[in-house]
């Protein structure tokens, strides 16, 4: 079994624990050894039956364990990347966690640390970067690419030939039309529809069509 340390003790942590339980119901693949979180008041507490061991440091991740980055927030979309890069783990130390009800083309390239929830769909000749994730029922169509540490929320639809940069956040139900590019560090608001390139790093785009605010 692959031994896991979960990074972050919030809502995504509980979701990933549930995801791991679903995987293990079919085949005993993962063993969760514990959780790391920088909130000192959580040390020793239980999250869905698993103990918070201490702060988020590379020293707290045993050499025989992989890490799973369980940090997702719209309040600070760069946080996921900052925490992951702070740990400075080699790529193979990040666990790839894929729900059995995710659908993935054989030609898709999924990098370490990717987390794919139930109902997510990944088309042919796509790629998902280091420590990015697709929430429930998100769709990545053919020939589209996600950068590193990008968060794709539930029900997002990414059409074909789309490139999404690093550390982006695509809000619930947002839509990206075909043949567009999204720069690094961009937030696309819930339900927004992007019909052209989103070129301004660090901006929030909302509405139909999506515009920077």
Automatic annotation (TrEMBL):
Return the CDD domains for the record.
LbH_AT_putative
Organism name: Candidatus Glassbacteria bacterium RIFCSPLOWO2_12_FULL_58_11
Name of the protein this chain belongs to? PglD N-terminal domain-containing protein
**Active site annotation, chain numbering:** 142
Q: Which domain of life is it from?
A: Bacteria
Site (Increases basicity of active site His) at 143
The residues listed in the UniProt record as binding acetyl-CoA, with positions renumbered to this chain, are 172
Q: Which SUPFAM superfamilies does the UniProt entry name for this protein?
A: Trimeric LpxA-like enzymes
Residue ranges constituting the PglD N-terminal domain according to the UniProt record: 3-60
The UniProt transmembrane annotation reads none
Q: Which residues form the signal peptide?
A: none
